[in-house]
Amino acid sequence: MSEDRQITVIAGGVGAAKFLRGLLGIYPNELVTAVVNVADDFRLHGLAISPDLDTVTYTLSEQVNPATGWGRVGETWRVRDELERLGGQTWFNLGDLDLALHLYRTQRLDEGATLTQVSLEICTRLGIKAQVLPASNQEIHTQLKVQGQGWIDFQDYFVAQQHNVAVEDLRFEGIASASPGPEVISSLKESDAIVIAPSNPFVSIKPILEISGIAAVLRERRQEVVAISPIVGGAALKGPASRMLEELGFERNSVGIASLYKDIARTLVIDEVDSDLSQRVESEGMRALVTNTIMDTPTRAAALASAVLAEVSLAEEDQQ
Ligand code: FO1
Predict the structure, then answer these.
(1) Whole-angstrom distance, CA of residue 201 vs CA of residue 108
(2) Contact 131, 34 (CB under 8 A)
(3) How is the chain split into domains, by residue range?
(4) Residue with the nearest Cα to atom 22 of ligand 1?
(5) 95 CA to centre of ligand 1 in angstroms
(6) CA distance 173 to 138
(7) pTM greater than 0.85 (yes/no)
(8) Contact 240/163 with Cβ under 8 angstroms?
(9) Residue-wise pLDDT tens digits, 217-250
(10) How many CB atoms lie within 10 A of CB 45?
(11) Residue of 10, 70, 93 with the most ligand 1 atoms within 8 Å of its CB, for mutation
């Protein structure tokens, strides 16, 4: 099949994980690298939690809870229930199996391992052949300025308040001094294609792009970059992406996504229900690729991955 045509996927949580699972179903896994957002990471109960990395690793190891898209399938909640009885913090649901991963990561970080090392260790143990790389080993914390409350932390906005408040502004604490994790820049430079996963452009992709040097590589390699719109028919399949587009002054559809990505990506993949927007996406200066982007089954996710590979000429027939 392929010799060494590498693909790097810039990834947030649930949407990115589904896309990656589809891609790994049809492409040599060791040629795929995911560069994953770490700006949602935080500490709770003294534990280091990395939600997007864990969503990706649980999904790729077929252990994710299919009902939520995050956390473990077959999870039990004995620790959380006991914490509740004690009056502890239970607003962020950590299941018993999931807690084991946070315990392991926290211990390894306390021993001096980097998040990249820990992530690679976890992937090896879970049998994941793709490289799952944290975007940075330094701490970056997304904060949102929300109506009537000022600046709040990401998980307060996303989980505690169920992203049910209007966002006025965003910032990524620590990003100015953060550097890309090991192999992030080299994998972006050496890949034959770069995919921006269908993740929230503001809170999943932006805190990767704003790490020193990353957006510059994408601009240089724009011809090989394909972005997948997370908006279908004016709504995000999951999370607050569509309302954030409007709140932050963009069109609440894939044209709004095109205006965000046009300088770093040649193609925007939009859903069939939005085919009427393809001309407007092209007026923004991007190629519009219309296909089904709803990854409700692994087979559909693989079909989307296959359409993306064809767009960058990495489809199987080109690899002989
Ligand atoms: N999302 C929720 O909406 N509620 C939760 O209680 C919750 C717990 C949780 C635990 C571990 C984990 O890895 C993810 C978890 N998520 C939860 C998802 C997470 O907050 C978001 O998906 C991301 O941070 C945004 O991409």
Answers:
(1) 31
(2) yes
(3) 7-139+174-319
(4) 13
(5) 11
(6) 11
(7) yes
(8) yes
(9) 999 999 999 999 999 997 777 789 999 999 999 9
(10) 15
(11) 70
